[in-house]
Input
Amino acid sequence: MMISMSIYDGKPPSWEDWSEEKEQKKKIVHDQLLQQALGEPPYNYEWGNISSAFSPQSGSSSIDNRDKKDTLTAYIQYHAGNCFP
Output
């Protein structure tokens, strides 16, 4: 399972004002947030990893949480009352 998140400046993102420069700046902010919260990368754990990335294919920057063993999926299902399949 992978969960991705991204910050934005208060208005929903739009292709009308998109630029690679803005997305690269967003990645820098993501990197800084992770460093403040978790210290220096890499962020590899027994359960999975957390990373910050810019994807030229999607044109977006994100913080990604990849679960190696479906432990995150199990946690979410348990705490959400098993409302996810």
User: Anything to note?
Assistant: The chain has one domain: 18-79. The mean pLDDT is 85.
